[in-house]
């Protein structure tokens, strides 16, 4: 029954051929990525084992290439993304050989390269900015609503519904609890991964709201709600915020607060004053708080007085205990699972350290180049443009805020499942935006051209 994971690929091929690759990308690939667990896959002996979104990505990408790669234009930053995927794939091949490395190599293609290329080509160049953003928000809103059941009953609905079709898969993803409440994970495996997804979606939704993208005061989907004063935009915003809160994840929450401070610069008339406030916030509040955190966590697990302090001490000890191990294979890393484990610390809750361990310093440098490089490029671009109208419609600051969410969050957890593909969708979107020559405001994006029909028929009237 696991072959059901290929169903999105069939729909993707059909709609990509009959409508367009952009239509299939927005209406098949994105929902399969955001609504279906990434830990369920079709296991094919001797072949890579695709998940639903990976199969859909390959299907859309093949038709995209057949149609001449509409919207794609090479830029130098492509080499950074392709380089990261290539280095990780080669690192695993070098450590384990092809048979053991093929799934990771396939994942690099379908979760890094293809999402990046499709988002770069089919969003900004073809006028899909608003449709792309809305599709992400609507899908995450649906997840947030379903997660209310998980929060209330401590049962993951996705595992309950889809688990019987994929026996033996996804069993390692269990619900965790905090403050006596279930931390919702949705279809993303772990609550922290769900928190990253939801906060990224919240930032996109705030941009849509501030830009006036939700033009209807009350969408027909929400007419049955007993709160007539809430607009469609406000309902989606509350849904995204609620979805982030019920994950109960402190790291992404902190990242979301810092991202909100950055994004707020784009809502100021004098953005240089906002930059000054941000610098004061970073160096006057965040830096001292970080130094205090290091002192607080540096007491060691054996001297920790609370569970939170013990968790922080564990993460700090990871760096001390694993750095020398990582340096032994500094260039290419140990591979996905072959790095030596320190007794009592089998879980590496820091993606930067984990990436260094698994795939070496080249992969780590390329990953940091993507995160930090995009933040710098987007902010520089935004500051070089006139104030957008309405205030808050600066896409550059919104995208930079999403990178801040990732930059801080993955220091507390590994980056996996759908968070990888979402990051490179955002990266493709950002790269396309920076090179599309469009203004920051939503309304300046060109209207998408109607796709050419696959078949042409002559109409004869008699």
Folded structure, characterized:
The chain is mainly alpha-helical and about 450 residues long. It has one domain. It is about 60% helix and about 0% strand. The chain has 15 helices and two strands. Strands 1-2 form a two-stranded antiparallel ribbon. Helix 4 runs antiparallel to helix 13 (about 350-385). The radius of gyration is 22 Å and the shape is globular. About 45% of the residues are buried. Mean pLDDT is about 90; it is low at about 445-450 and about 455-460.
Features:
462 residues, 15 helices, two-stranded antiparallel ribbon, 61% helix, mainly alpha, disordered C terminus
Please estimate the helix content: 55-70%
Strand order of the largest sheet: 1-2
The geometry reads as globular
**What string, H for helix and E for strand, traces the elements in order?**
HHHHHHHEEHHHHHHHH
Number of helices: 15
Radius of gyration: 22 Å
Structural class: mainly alpha
Q: How many distinct beta strands?
A: 2
Low-pLDDT regions? 443-451, 455-460
Short description:
The chain is mostly helical.
Set out the fold topology.
Layout: H1 7-18, H2 21-35, H3 52-66, H4 77-96, H5 98-122, H6 129-153, H7 157-162, E1 176-178, E2 181-183, H8 191-211, H9 232-245, H10 250-264, H11 271-297, H12 307-328, H13 351-384, H14 395-409, H15 418-435
Antiparallel strand pairs: 1-2
